[in-house]
Amino acid sequence: MATKDQNDTVIERKEQQEKLQPPPMYQVLLLNDDYTPMEFVVAIIQEYFNKDRETATQIMLKVHRDGKGMCGVYPKDIASTKVELVLTHARKAGHPLQCVMEEA
Ligand code: TYC
């Protein structure tokens, strides 16, 4: 919506608000499988999501029980990089671990 101030300056309120919206954030999730060792998943969560061992273990057990679990929320490019790093590490180690991102 365009309005004018006392000096007849046009202020594009709506456009300004839209420009100031924060960037969309993305959850990075791990998915359960029957083969990846629990200890490997805990190490992945500690290394790539900066969690202490206890928190990483809780997240791993939630994934094991519920089928998926959230490791962190990040801007799109950071989330995407973490997914790639986790998948590359898991494949190099020969594990089928799946890691995905979805808009928060
Ligand atoms: N379900 C696996 C097992 O019993 C452990 C596991 C947990 C695998 C979390 C993947 O994202 C995962 N060894």
Give a short overview.
The chain is α+β, with helices and mostly antiparallel strands and 104 residues long.
Number of strands: 5
The low-pLDDT segments are 1-5
Beta-strand percent range: 25-35%
Q: What class do helices, strands and sheet pairing give?
A: alpha+beta
The kinds of small molecule bound in this structure are: L-tyrosinamide
- Which topology of the domain at 34-104 does CATH recognise? Ribosomal Protein L30, Chain: A
Overall pLDDT level: 89
- What's the tally of helices? 4
Shape: elongated
First CA to last CA: what distance? 29 Å
The largest sheet has its strands arranged as 4-3-5
Give the biggest sheet: 3 strands, antiparallel
The Cα radius of gyration reads 20 Å
At CATH level 2, the architecture of the domain at 34-104 is 2-Layer Sandwich
Oligomeric state: single chain
- One letter per element, helices H and strands E, the order comes to EEHEHHEHE
Overview of the molecule:
The structure is a single chain. With 104 residues, the protein is an alpha+beta fold. It has a domain at 34-104: Ribosomal Protein L30, Chain: A (2-Layer Sandwich), CATH 3.30.1390.10. The protein has four helices and five strands; from the N terminus they run E-E-H-E-H-H-E-H-E. The chain has helices at 13-19, 38-49, 53-66, 76-92, and strands spanning 2-4, 10-12, 25-31, 68-75, 98-103. It has a three-stranded antiparallel sheet with strand order 4-3-5. Strand 1 and strand 2 (10-12) form a beta hairpin. The chain is elongated and about 50 Å long. The two termini are 29 Å apart. Residues 1-5 have low confidence and may be disordered. L-tyrosinamide binds at residues 30-34, 36-38, 41, 60, 63-64, 97. One of its GO terms (molecular function) is peptidase activity. Involved in the modulation of the specificity of the ClpAP-mediated ATP-dependent protein degradation. InterPro entries: ClpS (IPR022935), ClpS_core (IPR003769), Ribosomal_bL12_C/ClpS-like (IPR014719). Keywords: Hydrolase, Protease.
